[in-house]
C-alpha cells in the first residue's frame, strides 16, 4: 500500500467487519478458541480462581483449571481481504452473565462451545441466543479422553432445532476454529435471509 492506494493501482478494499460471540460453560475452551485463531494478541480478562469463589464456581470436570474469564476475551481474524471477524468470548460463570447483554449488542451470530462431559452447561447459551433471535451453531470441543458422539446424538441431547449446525472441533487448532467461524457466518447469513423472506411474504 502506497499513499492509500494498492500497488496495482486499485483503491484499497474496505473490509466488512462482523461481530461473533463465543459462549459456553465454565472451562469449555472459549479463551483457547479465541487465542488459537486470532491474528492479534488476544485481549484476555482472566483472573486466578480463589478459595472465596469455590462455593459458586463449579470446577467438576475441569479440576485443573486455575483461571477464569471475568469480563471477555477479544480477538480478530481476517477471513478474506473484505471480511474481518471480531471475536468476543463471554464469561462462562453464572455470576458474570449480566455482561452478555452488552457483548451481544450488534452480533451477527454466535458459537456455543460444548463439552460432552458437561453438556448441561451449554443450555444457558443456547437459551440466551434462542430468546434473542441470534443465530448460533454448537461447536463440540473434542477434549482428549472425552467420549465422542455423532452430531445428531448431541443435537438430540441438547434439543436443538434441525437448522442449528452442530460441528465437532478442536479449540486449540487454528484450521478447525476457522471452519467453525466460516460455518457460523454462513449460518447467520442464511438465517437473516430466511427471516427477510418471511417478513416480505
UniProtKB/TrEMBL annotation:
Key words of the record: GTP-binding, Hydrolase, Nucleotide-binding
Pfam family, one: ATP_bind_1
InterPro entries named in the record: Gliding_Motility_GTPase, Gpn
PANTHER family registered for this protein in UniProt: ATP/GTP-BINDING PROTEIN-RELATED, GLIDING MOTILITY PROTEIN MGLA
Protein name as it appears in the record: ATP/GTP-binding protein
Organism in which the protein naturally occurs: Streptomyces osmaniensis
Amino acid at each position: 500500500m502506497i499513499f492509500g492506494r494498492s500497488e496495482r493501482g486499485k483503491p484499497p478494499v474496505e473490509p466488512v467487519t462482523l461481530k461473533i460471540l463465543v459462549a459456553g460453560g465454565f472451562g469449555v475452551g472459549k479463551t483457547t478458541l479465541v487465542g488459537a485463531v486470532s491474528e492479534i494478541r488476544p485481549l484476555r480478562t482472566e483472573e486466578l480462581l480463589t478459595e472465596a469463589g469455590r462455593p459458586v464456581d463449579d470446577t467438576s470436570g475441569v479440576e485443573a483449571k486455575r483461571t477464569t474469564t471475568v469480563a471477555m476475551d477479544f480477538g480478530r481474524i481476517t477471513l478474506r481481504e473484505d471480511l474481518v471477524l471480531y471475536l468476543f468470548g463471554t464469561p462462562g460463570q453464572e455470576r458474570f452473565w449480566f455482561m452478555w447483554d452488552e457483548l451481544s449488542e450488534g452480533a451477527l451470530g454466535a458459537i456455543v462451545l460444548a463439552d460432552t462431559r458437561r453438556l448441561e452447561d451449554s443450555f444457558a447459551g443456547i437459551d440466551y441466543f434462542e430468546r434473542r433471535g441470534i443465530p448460533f451453531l454448537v461447536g463440540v470441543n473434542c477434549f482428549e479422553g472425552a467420549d465422542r458422539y455423532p452430531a445428531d446424538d448431541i443435537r438430540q441431547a441438547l434439543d436443538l432445532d434441525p437448522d442449528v449446525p452442530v460441528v465437532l472441533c478442536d479449540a486449540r487448532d487454528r484450521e478447525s476454529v476457522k471452519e467453525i467461524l466460516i460455518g457460523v457466518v454462513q449460518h447467520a447469513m442464511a438465517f437473516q435471509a430466511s427471516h427477510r423472506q418471511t417478513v416480505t411474504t
